[in-house]
Amino acid sequence: MLRGRTIVVGVSGGIAAYKACELVRQLQSRGATVVVVMTRAATEFVTPLTFQALTGNPVVTTLWGDQAPAMKLPAAAALRTGGRVEHVDVAEAADALVLAPATADLMARIVHGEAPDALTSIVLAVRAPLIVCPSMDLEMWRKTVTQENVRALRARGATIVGPASGTLASGLVGPGRLAEVADIVAAVETAVARRGGMQGVRVLIGAGRTEEPIDPVRILTNRSSGRMGVALAEAARARGAEVTLVAGVMDVDPPVHVKVDRVRTATEMQRAMVRHAKAAAMVLMAAAVADFRVKKAASEKIKRAAGGLTLELAANPDILAGLGETRRIAASGGLQSAGLPTLVGFALETSQGVARARAKLRGKGVDLIVLNTPAEGLGGDTNQVTLVEARAQKKLPRMSKREVAEAVLDRVLELRRAVAVKPAGRAGAARPRRGRR
What we know:
Number of domains: 2
Number of strands: 21
Structural class: alpha/beta
CATH architecture of the largest domain: 3-Layer(aba) Sandwich
CATH class of the largest domain: Alpha Beta
Helix content: 25-40%
């Protein structure tokens, strides 16, 4: 699975640094080309010469060393590098960057964007998946600041592997051991398989909240932050997709390398989604669209009145249902399922969640509903969702919104593969007539 891939292994200064030797060996046994980057502290535990002998490649230990190393890289990786700045070339060549062991110090510096050495500079420059394998003493792992840093890394898309529990170098027993090498290798293989798995696929994502004017200064809106939609856009882009983000009002910035179409009202979002959906293979509607708008917004600020205020509301368009109807019409016209976009909706329910999600699934004509609750889905960096389909449902554990996004994309790709392998046969095609022998 890793043949022809370049895996960069970052080793920091922890007692588990010696286990990185076995990690390098296991990655190479699966066909990977391995480049090792070490912090200065790591060289106190294992010598660079050890890793150079294992990999056949120079070991990067400083920003001030050879700036044109003779790396033995696969052809695809070599094409991405220019041989001018060592840490940039290594970052460009990487198909995955795995930090094993990742000390508390290393994780803290990464979270805060510090880049004083070669390894942290590569982390900052890399676009490939990042796999972080924490290893430290028990109380260091338990500290609130360490847990906050781990959550921040997860929210930014890093895969966290471990730590495992057991007897530590200090003699204490508990979490802090480097994860098993087999588990780290499996995480690397998963990350590499995902990267580029949606190359060229056009993905449309609705994100954020809409705002409906009451008067020039007041609006009807909701508490959606836009984080889930942005996480989906980041995850799809990292897999090679061509992503268009129709963004309502959001509390977060949209990701880079993504086409962004800014909207404010539900009507504006409907027009944008319909326009972009024509070219999309996947449509994921994570936006929280206002169900109602003020029938006639005031042109001037409404003044306080002792008797209160009455607003007449009108229903906004159901964007997802409209896209589902468009797809149904296309299917009835003979377009094969494999050529139709996959539609995913997000539902937030306060009660009878699965039943209502399944009703929306049928009523809107979509393939998958991602169900969450106000307590889990609004505002924060984590979420706990249930993937609801016509004949199945799967409740996921609480995880970062980026991890939720990865799980949703994994399932959408499975659904698309299932459609692609169905026996070819156009809707409405005439059945073969039985003839006499």
